[in-house]
Give the backbone structure.
Amino acid sequence: MGLTSVLKLNCISCNRDVQEALYNTVFLPKLFTMILGFIILAFIVIILALFSFKKYKSHSAFVPDKDLLNPVPLSITAIILGIGIGGFIDGILFHQILQWHGMFTNQLPADTIVGKSVNMFWDGIFHSLTLIAVIIGIISLTRLLKKKNINPSPKLVLGGFFAGWGHFNFVEGIIHHHILNFHNIKEFSNNPNLWNYGFLIIGVIFMIIGFTIIYNREHYPARLDEE
């Protein structure tokens, strides 16, 4: 088989079998279910973005002292970036480098050209949505440059990043691994659930680390008169 024939087999727009697998009567009715996890993550990102774009006063429930700079906008922005970058890390490490799973490998194994291509297509959709989250985070971050009374502590960025990454792991793990059973972290394992629950535990640990850093009052020493 020549190189051209091999490339054609892997090309979604060239291979009729791959097109039928993507758009057949089995996959299309399940389209909403297939993107449910993405919708929930997108909803979380949108809500966080709205909070980040709000005009915050320095004095709030998060900042008891009205003279302290507000940590909320930067923390939320970092959480958005953490969700997007955490998704990229998941996709790059588990889907591409280690190739432990694809988006739907528990329902459509990637052991054929068609299976591999369909999973790769949905991996691309997954990466596209994580890219959108990162772009929203960057836009939010640039907007903060124009705001006053914002606490600029790098520790808030670190805490928000871990909190966001933990949110991604937990939401994606609950929905895709346990509720919908789209894939396991490691498909070729004697105990896939061990890896799936480990993924959730890591997500919870990341959230605890992130919010512990964010809520540490040592990050709030900067006062308005110190700008």
In short: Residues 36-226 form one domain. The radius of gyration is 21 Å. The chain has one domain: 36-226.
